[in-house]
Amino acid sequence: MELAGAVAVVTGAGAGIGAAVARAIVDQGGSVVVADLNAERVRAVAERINTDTGATRAAAVAGDVSDDAVIAELVATAEREFGPVDLYVANAGITAGLGLDSDDAAWQTALDVNVLAHVRAARALVPGWVERGRGYFLSTASAAGLLTQIGSVTYSVSKHAAVGFAEWLRVTYGDSGVGVSCLCPMGVNTELLNAGFSGDRDGGSIAANAVTSAGTVLEPEDVAAVVIEALRDERFLILPHPEVLTMYQRKGSDYDRWIAGMQRYQRSLRGDA
Fold first, then answer.
1. In the chain, at which end, N or C, are there fewer CB atoms within 10 A of the end residue's CB?
2. Residue 115 DSSP class
3. Which helix (H) or strand (E) holds 110?
4. pLDDT at position 260, please?
5. Is 209 exposed, middle or buried (0-12, 13-18, 19+ CB in 10 A)?
6. Residue 261: CB partners within 8 Å, gap ≥ 6?
7. 205-226, pLDDT tens digit by residue?
8. Considering only 18-27, 91-100, 115-124, which range has the smallest mean pLDDT?
9. Predicted TM-score (pTM) of this structure
10. How large is the average pLDDT for residues 25-53?
11. Residue 229: C-alpha distances to residues 110, 184, 240, 262 (Å)
């Protein structure tokens, strides 16, 4: 994908991966609409981009990006300020609920933000991209969507669903000019890692430790650099932590052995004998 002159929407862009990807897109010559629940932070991101570039290259929209009305506002803002959307980065993510005691509200929140926000955005944009013969959808899932997330069932299941939707989208519309990539990092130094998993011995602390002890914790800017390279190559699976591919291959080659290994890993995180 050529990012010079491209118009992008990036959700979950008030900080972390979203903010870094938005800035990287602008650095490549694109323009961006950034979105986040936190109005103050996302406006600050847009203002910083515009100040640093000396031009209006970013606009901000605050709201829940799993809401059809907010998605429509994002698309309308992009068209008004910069032109038709070429790239949609469905990056917003959330942790909601940990174990089997997670109630239906927690499940619905996780599914809304981590999966259905992607579905609703694609529903709004893909038909128009097919007519134009081009467009690009980038889904931020997680290594948890390829492997699993020890300590958080809602996160693990919703991220698996995000990967599945991205795969389906690429298979279904790839021959119609629609590009799709799926970003699956492990640990990244963001609020989602540092504060998103909270809980007791059987919950948040184990979930966070499972991520930080599995490999290097990257900075958002490191992830953004990998994303830009992958978009240029139109590569489907984006793995800022290359070792995830090896883990995924081992999982597929012997599922029972992989599950046994994950159980041992979980026991070690709990400090069990």
1. C
2. I
3. helix 104-111
4. 96
5. middle
6. none
7. 666 666 666 668 899 999 999 9
8. 91-100
9. 0.92
10. 98
11. 29, 15, 11, 31
For residue 25, give the DSSP letter: H
List, for residues 60-72, the tens digit of each pLDDT value: 999 999 999 999 9
Radius of gyration of the chain (CA): 18
Starting at the edge strand found earlier in the chain, the sheet holding 135-140 runs 58-62, 31-36, 7-10, 87-90, 135-140, 178-183, 237-238
What b/e string do you get for 217-226 counting C-beta neighbours within 10 Å, with b at 16 or more?
bbebebbbbb
Q: Are 179 and 166 in contact (CB under 8 A)?
A: no
Question: Structure tokens of 139?
Answer: 């889904």
CA separation for the pair 160, 142 (Å, rounded): 8
Residue 155 known to be catalytic: yes
Mapped onto helix, strand or coil, the DSSP state of residue 188 is: strand
What DSSP designation does 218 have?
Answer: B
DSSP state of 144: G
**Residue 256: which residues within 8 A CB-CB, separation 6 or more?**
none
Token pair for 162:
């995000």
User: Do the beta carbons of residue 149 and residue 208 sit within 8 Å?
Assistant: no
- Triad 125, 177, 142: Cα angle to 5°: 65
Beta bridge partners of 139: 90, 182
- Residue-range domains of the chain with CATH: 7-241 (3.40.50.720)
